[in-house]
Specification:
By secondary structure, the chain is mostly beta strands. It is built from one helix and 16 strands. The protein has a 16-stranded antiparallel β-sheet that branches. It is elongated. 5% of the residues are buried.
Length: 319
């Protein structure tokens, strides 16, 4: 363009990872009133989750006035989620007079597709300060879910029963509007300090149709809350080296708070990273993220200290 600036961008990012695995093994010592279905049984349970969601992004920005840029992006979301539950229960203590044990298998294979948009404004105040604001436009995420369930019961007299069922279910999820503001400053050459906040009212999330019988229309109002995500970070460029040192802090409250769960300490993350430019065209970035938060259930009787450790590696080529 003759004046100002005009930029276009395209990118892809894995915005959600579903990979997880949990295993439970042992004798269920709950009383019959507390857990009548599995009372006194020896349990072997494994839950496997896999898949992820990718965002394909197309954006553009233009300088609408000296020092002020307006931009937007259109993002296409696509992904897959696979869930597999394997449960074996055996009456090793001889508590049940008829049942010797049973097995249950539950699988869910979900395909996701959706569209979302974002509008952003950036203002440059002098050479050392930048202010920004964003609005995430609500969108509908379409889900096609294929599920199977298999049950096998074995009795003391050697007889058995089995049951199998499967089906396909489709529904949409509407997410709320998100509002973000940020600031970045360069107090001295080679140093950048930034901070931003992102607000979302997750109670405004809606299903077009509840995906299961135990979820009603008020599910999000009763189990979700609004959150404010806070980020603070800094970057220092070592002179004449092309090496950048980074550190940051993220406060990311959990939006999902089911009945009986208390958040004692909000979810927090501390990050450290290093980036470098090789041969003036290749960029390499490595980051480490440490997460920690505290939860409690049963009116504080059970307390959980949670932590996570993640390493991120990315590379880029400059044309």
């Amino acid at each position: 363009v003759r004046r100002g600036g005009l930029a276009f961008a395209i990118g892809v990012n894995r915005v959600q990872s579903f990979d997880a695995r949990m295993r439970i093994s042992g004798l269920n010592k709950f009383t019959e009133n507390e857990d009548p279905e599995f009372f006194g049984l020896f349990i072997e349970e494994t839950t496997d989750e896999s898949g992820g969601m990718y965002s394909w992004n197309f954006g553009a920005a233009v300088e609408v006035a000296p020092g002020v840029s307006l931009g937007g992006s259109l993002n296409f979301l696509a992904g897959n989620y696979e869930y597999a539950l394997s449960l074996d229960a055996d009456d090793t203590e001889g508590i049940d007079s008829e049942l010797a044990g049973f097995s249950f298998r539950d699988t869910i294979d979900s395909d996701y597709f959706g569209v979302e948009g974002k509008i952003g404004l950036l203002a440059r105040v002098g050479k050392q300060l930048r202010l920004g604001a964003t609005i995430d436009i609500p969108f509908e995420l379409s889900v096609d879910e294929y599920w199977t369930q298999d049950t096998f019961d074995l009795y003391d007299d050697g007889t058995s029963d089995s049951f199998a069922d499967d089906g396909v279910f489709s529904y949409d999820i509407s997410r709320p509007v998100k509002f973000g503001v940020g600031i970045a400053a360069t107090p001295i050459p080679g140093v950048i300090i930034s901070a931003d906040a992102l607000y979302a009212d997750w109670t405004q999330t809606e299903y077009s149709e509840p995906p299961s019988d135990d979820i009603d229309d008020d599910f999000f109002n009763e189990n979700y809350r609004d959150t404010v995500q806070l980020r603070v970070g800094g970057e220092f460029t070592i002179p004449n080296s092309g090496v950048r040192l980074r550190a940051g802090y993220l406060r990311d409250p959990l939006p999902y708070t089911p009945d009986g769960l208390e958040i004692d300490t909000e979810r927090q993350f501390i990050t450290f990273g290093i980036g470098m430019i090789l041969d003036r065209v290749l960029t390499l970035d490595v980051a480490y993220m440490l997460g920690f938060w505290e939860e409690s259930t049963d009116d504080g009787v059970i307390k959980k200290d949670r932590d996570s450790n993640r390493v991120f590696l990315s590379a880029g080529y400059r044309f």
